[in-house]
Design a protein that fits this description.
Chain lengths: 313, 409
């Protein structure tokens, strides 16, 4: 089924009102924060954010919070379970007449890739399996960013992190492939999954708006370009975020009731253009170019899109 | 005898039912499972107006429990042993959120080696988590303590979660007569949960569990928890008086058994204290002036009550059903600390370790405890830690080792 934006066709249609206010302690150029800011324009203020340990923990630092909505910090491994408790309690209190219906809130989990791909996988699986009515917002910066960028199972092949450094034995740095959390989620058969990028705001807003029509788990993966972890200048975040999509490395897609649709088909620039912007891939180019490694990354992207296009036809 | 016959587990489930809880996140673990099975059945049949959810782990279970509590629901949950430890990180979060839920722990010794029967290394590991702790001896006390725990935990002066502990197998699966409190009177004792300063709503947003930068705000909030826990001593006194008025049963932070003229005192907790009381009766029949002090509230630590009960005694023996390897008995250390400044402190403190992994405490062992404690009192010199482990038991162990060796070759 082709995807067409219905609500957000022009940039002017994105609400001007801000729901994540400026002045947080997050890094300059944080792609994750930009994605959250855009998402909140659709989610609004009647929200309780249930946060997992990660970079976003620093959003609410006593006595400040950038939200007009509510916030509960849980643990790294159990934010979806926190969402379960909040959602169930709101439902019970409303059903028993102890809370007016107009006091109801959306429950939104915030988790980085370390939490989402690794530690909270069991808790997320449980929440999806139970059909919990909630949003899951993963800001994926492909490593344990809040601790200074260590290897996570979201780290892509060829990236250098502080715990997967490049060396004579491991010239590419990270050897493993990025875990396909989208497909892991999809195997649970939730009604709605989407990948987003803040560099494609209309696509992002449309996906959040469309999600609101679904009861149950609504799961979002936002690729979060990360200047401090990916090692580029904060001003380059938009360009890095854009090239992730234009090279085909970060496919923009939705899975609605299991059916996958790519919401943007890139012309696919060579992956080199994306890789060479970032310090975490510099060892693939210097002192000698690791052609095989770059070729491997390109091959995997090509294979992905060949399959995606074949399935479509 | 009046009352219905029921297990400790069923008594715990009745406690939650009478407390009219709103929400029960659950996860099975032996020997606790019977509690959540009973509650699931009652929620399903409509006997309880609560939502029951089976979670994916105890870690998730505790998170959901705390999150629902701070949203404004009255929450009950239960676990045991490995489950309590799996949830451990969240215990500290939940108390920091000041979420006054009640958690029943059915004590079971910790792996490794993996086993099923009780000792108190599980619940005592949580002694610094910010949860209040009430340790019950009988099935009746399990039920009554859950009602008291909600009243104390939800008091504005406290607002901390509480653990009610009972021994696995020895109490969880033992049927005793339990008098069912009248639900109408329970409503008088435990009014509906309307927390003034909890809840997430559209009109009153709220940020909870936020990060702090530096030690000053951290210290402030942690110290608030300490003060709140200490307030629970006074709140417990009030709750005990109200409970006695309504139901005719009295529970204090400690329980003295034949203490009045006792020279030497044995200190115990939980269901094995019943064996201790029988041993006191037997020793009294032999002419020993001994008594038993049962610690019921472990957190907050009732130091004044313990000092009053133990001052002027010749000798005190603490029977810890736990072992801190490299140190000894956990409660021994706490008792010793609170007696240090007591002018009339006992002449000798003795430390015994027994009942690990549910190992029996025999009459002979109790006799030995009383003899050695009396002797220590006469000499003015404490002993221990003494591990209770008989020759017969060791012969049994050696047989197993021989068998293990034979199987190996």
């Amino acid at each position: 089924m082709p995807w067409q934006r219905e609500t957000f066709k022009k940039i002017k249609q994105i609400p001007r009102e801000e729901h994540v206010l400026p002045g947080t302690t997050l890094c300059a150029g944080c792609g994750g924060l930009e994605a959250l800011r855009l998402a909140a324009k659709v989610l609004g203020d009647d929200v309780v954010y249930v946060n997992a340990a990660g970079c976003f923990t620093m959003l609410a630092t006593y006595p400040f919070t950038p939200f007009k909505g509510s916030w509960l910090y849980t643990t790294m491994g159990s934010a979806p379970a926190g969402a379960q408790g909040v959602r169930d309690a709101l439902d019970v209190l409303i059903a028993k007449g102890r809370l007016p219906k107009n006091e109801n809130l959306k429950v939104v989990v915030l988790g980085g890739d370390g939490s989402t791909y690794d530690m909270a996988l069991s808790s997320t699986s449980g929440a999806i399996c139970r059909g919990l009515d909630f949003y899951y917002f993963c800001y994926d910066n492909e490593g344990y960013g809040n601790t200074g960028m260590q290897l996570s199972s979201a780290t892509p092949y060829g990236a250098r992190t502080t715990t997967s450094p490049c060396s004579l034995q491991h010239p590419t740095g990270t050897m493993q492939e990025k875990k396909d959390i989208f497909e892991i989620w999809r195997a649970h058969k939730p009604p709605y999954i989407a990948t987003v990028s803040p560099r494609y705001p209309l696509d992002l807003e449309e996906k959040f708006a469309r999600a609101a029509t679904f009861a149950g788990p609504k799961l979002f993966l936002a690729l979060s370009a990360c200047p401090t972890g990916w090692l580029y200048d904060p001003s380059e975040t938009p360009e890095v975020a854009k090239l992730a999509v234009e090279t085909g490395l970060w496919p923009l897609k939705v899975a609605i009731n299991g059916g996958v649709t790519h919401t943007y088909i890139p012309k696919r620039k060579p992956v080199e253009e994306y890789l060479k912007l970032q310090g975490r891939f510099r060892h693939l180019f210097e002192p000698t170019k690791q052609e095989a490694a770059i070729h491997h990354i390109q091959e995997r992207v090509d294979a992905y899109w060949e399959q995606a296009t074949a399935e479509k036809s | 005898m009046a009352g219905e016959m029921m297990t400790g587990n069923l008594a715990a489930a009745w406690g939650a039912r009478l407390a009219d809880v709103d929400y029960i996140p659950a996860f099975p673990i032996t020997p606790q499972t019977e509690i959540v099975e009973a509650l699931a059945k009652w929620c399903e049949s409509g006997a309880m107006a609560a939502r029951f959810v089976t979670m994916d782990s105890e870690h998730s279970m505790m998170t959901a429990a705390g999150a629902a509590e701070v949203t404004g629901a009255r929450v009950f949950t239960a676990t045991s042993s490995q489950g309590l430890l799996y949830a451990f990180e969240v215990l500290y979060s939940v108390s920091g959120w000041r979420a006054p839920l009640v958690l029943v722990n059915v004590s079971r010794a910790l792996a490794a080696p993996i086993t099923l029967e009780p000792d108190h290394n599980d619940v005592l590991a949580a002694r610094d988590s910010g949860f209040l702790q009430i340790h019950a001896e009988t099935c009746q006390e399990v039920l009554d303590s859950i009602l008291m725990a909600y009243r104390i935990a939800e008091d504005e002066r406290v607002m901390l979660p509480a653990i009610v502990n009972l021994d696995g197998f020895y109490l969880s699966f033992t049927r005793e007569p339990v008098i069912m409190p009248d639900p109408e009177r329970v409503k008088l004792f435990l009014p509906p949960f309307h927390p003034a300063h909890l809840g997430f709503t559209a009109s009153a947003p709220h940020a909870l569990g936020v990060a702090v930068l530096g030690g000053v705000p951290y210290t402030y909030f942690r110290h608030q928890m300490h003060l709140a826990a200490m307030n629970a001593l006074e709140v417990h006194r009030e709750a005990a008086a109200a409970f006695e008025r309504l139901f005719g049963r009295r529970y204090d932070v400690i329980e003295g058994y034949r203490l009045d003229d006792a020279e030497d005192v044995l200190v115990m907790t939980n269901a094995f204290a019943s064996k201790g009381k029988a041993a006191v009766d037997a020793a009294r029949a032999q002419g020993r002036r001994v008594g038993l002090l049962r610690l019921r509230v472990i957190r907050p630590w009732p130091a004044d009550a313990i000092r009053q009960a133990l001052q002027g005694r010749r000798a005190v023996a603490i029977l810890d059903q736990n072992l801190a390897p490299g140190q000894g008995g956990i409660l021994f250390q706490e008792i010793a600390a609170c007696l240090y400044h007591e002018a009339l402190r006992p002449r000798a403190l003795c430390s015994f370790i027994g009942g690990l992994g549910g190992k029996n405490l025999s009459e002979g062992e109790f006799r030995a405890i009383f003899e050695q404690t009396a002797q220590a009192g006469v000499q003015g010199k404490g002993i221990g830690p003494v591990l209770l482990y008989t020759e017969a038991e060791h012969r049994e162990m050696v047989q197993l080792q021989v068998l293990a060796g034979a199987l190996k070759s």
